[in-house]
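For the sake of transparency, this paper describes our internal protein records without simplification. Because each token names a local backbone shape, the row as a whole describes the fold. One such record is reproduced below, unchanged from the form in which we store it.
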Amino acid sequence: MARAPDPSCAVRPAALAALLLAAVAGAHYAAPLPDSAIAKASRQFSLPFTGPPGPNTWLLGQGYGNTTGAYRQRRSTYGNLQGIHAGLDFSAPCGTPVHAIGDGVVVDVDGPHGSPPHNVVIDHAGNLSSLYGHLLRRSTLKVGQRVKRGDVIGLSGDSQFTCVSAPHLHLELRDRSHQRFFNPQPYIAADWNSLALASGFGRGYEYDLNAPRRWQAPDTQPEALRGGRLLNEFARPWPPAPGGSR
């Protein structure tokens, strides 16, 4: 006689998958590192693209921090990052070579760090990690592989997977616990004033009309802590999010 299927067996694969995902994520995250353990910003890194910026090569798209785009999605996409855009977006055609910003060791290829469809994480000196997101395809790098500053680590892609919707590279700078997110600009040697003038997306910073000068320049943006309270839940925001905020 055939035995009736055990209902509990049907949920076991899903439960097992959830446990495995939690274990993988847990292996990548730890307690935030203190300031004393983290290298100070001294323009020690380089840009992730070579050659001059321009409409046919690459441009600075969205800055780090309290951007208007992040404000509109402060309770959804950026809700776990205190409501701010925790990296730099560089617009670039799909397939543009992406370079390591500094010497380091590859610690993740398509790890649990978001920025799909593909990402790479490299650990650097000073307990810093760089994340390269929205890559076109899985990087050929191997975990544990050493890379030098300027080495190609992958190809830029599109966050919408089309190569015509939002082709760009998302670059983050974190502490090695992946809990603290830093503004990459003071860590990267570049002509940021010129890059900001030619910004491709044209996104500025959200105003808090009760403190209209706060977080309005690229070099005054706040650090973010994973899971911390929202930093930009402003009582008098400007511009208001069209259709309400998400």
